[in-house]
Amino acid sequence: MTTRNEPATLAAAQGLMGQLVAWRRDLHRHPELAFQEHRTAGIVAASLAQLGLEVQTGVGQTGVVGILEGSRPGPTVLLRFDMDALPIFEETGLSFASLTEGKMHACGHDAHTAIGLGVATLLARRQENLPGRVKFMFQPAEEIASGARAMIADGVLENPAPQAAFGLHVWSLWPVGHGVVKDGPLWASADKFEIEIVGRGAHGALPHQGVDAIVVAAYAVAQLQTVASRGIDPLAPAVLTIGEIAGGSAFNVIAERVTLGGTLRTFDHAVRQQVIERMHAVLGGVCAAFGASYTLEVTFHAPPLVNDPDAAEYVRRVASEVLGPDAVADGPMLTVAEDMAEVLNRVPGCFLVLGAQPGSNGQPEPHHSPRFDIDEQAMPLGVAILAGVAEEYLRVNSG
What we know:
This protein is α/β, with parallel strands linked by helices. It folds into two domains: 6-186 and 304-396, Zn peptidases (Aminopeptidase, 3-Layer(aba) Sandwich); 190-302, Alpha-Beta Plaits (2-Layer Sandwich). It has ten helices and 16 strands. It has helices at 6-14, 17-29, 38-50, 109-125, 147-153, 213-231, 269-290, 309-323, 340-344, 378-396; strands at residues 54-59, 63-69, 72-82, 131-139, 164-171, 179-180, 184-187, 190-198, 202-203, 238-247, 253-254, 257-266, 293-302, 305-307, 328-329, 349-355. The strands form four sheets. Strands 1-2-4-3-5-16-6-15 form an eight-stranded mixed sheet, with helices on both faces. Helix 4 links the parallel strand 3 and strand 4. Helix 1 packs antiparallel against helix 10 and helix 8 (309-323) crosses helix 10.
C-alpha cells in the first residue's frame, strides 16, 4: 500500500486555514452541552448541504450525518467528529472566549467539528476522482459517553454500512506536528460507580449507640486505594478514583448514611470484572468490621478504544507522509475514555491522537481545564490526514 499526493493534500488543507479558524472560533464562542448541540448541528448540516452532500439531521437526537458519494462504486468509509462542550466556566481570556457562562469547549471538540467540515470541503472538491463514499458522523454527547450509542441506535452504521471508521482527537499536551497511531488498545473503558454505606444514626455525644457511616466511609476510601495497587497485576493498567463523597447533616449527629461516587478505568474486560469483585470484597470486609452495610452500583459508560491493526496502518502511513516519519509515535496508552470506542467495537478502524499544544501561552493546560486551548495550526494537519486516509482506503479497496 502506498499513499499518493499527500503533499498536495496538505497544501489543500492549509489553504482552508482561514475557514477552519473561523469555524472553530465561532463554535468556541457558542458552546453547547451534550444533546443540546442545536446551533452547532445547524451549522454542520448547512455546511454539508452547501457542499452537495446528502444530509440527515436529528440522528441520535442532535447528531448530523453527511454522505459524499464518489464517482464510481466502492466501499464506505466513516469519519467521526464530536461536537459537544463541557459545563466549565472559561478562564482563557481569549478574544473568542465562550459567550455562554458556565459552558466551554475545554476538550477540543470545536476544533474536531471544524476539522470535519474541512475534510468534507476538501473531499467534495475531489468527488469526481473518489470511489465509493465517505460517511461523515458529527456526534453529540461524547463528554457523557452517550452520543455514539444514540447515533448507532438511530442507524448511523447502516444504509450504507461502513467497512472502516476513522477519527481523531487533538491533544493540548503534545507538540503540534506530532501524532500517535497505535495498534490495539489506546484509551481506556469508563465506568461510573456509586457506593452507599449505611450505618446507624445516633447522638454525637454517644457514638457507641450508633454505627458511624462517616468513619466506615473513611476506612473504605483508604482501603479501596489498594484495589488497583495491590489487587491487580501491575502490568494490567487500572485506575479507581473516588471523586465524590457526601454524608452527615449536623455537627452533633452520628451520620447514618454516606454516599461515594467515582470512576473506574481499565483496558480489558477481565481486569474490569476483577476490580469490581475486589471492590465488593473490600467494602464487604470494612462494613462487616463496623456492623454497617453497603450497596455498589457500577454503570458502564464506554468500552476500551481498540484500534484495528490494518486500519491503523492506513493512518500511520498517511500521517507519516503529512507529519514526517519521525513525528508519528506508537503510544502511549491513556486512561481517558472516548465513545468512538462504540463505533470501533462494531467497525474496524483507527483513532488518531494529534498534537495541538499551544506555543504562546506558557505552560499548556490539560483537557477539561478552564484555561484549556490549542494551537490552531493542528487543524489543517488533521484535515490532511483524515482526508488522505479516506482517499487511500477507498482507492486500495475499490478493486
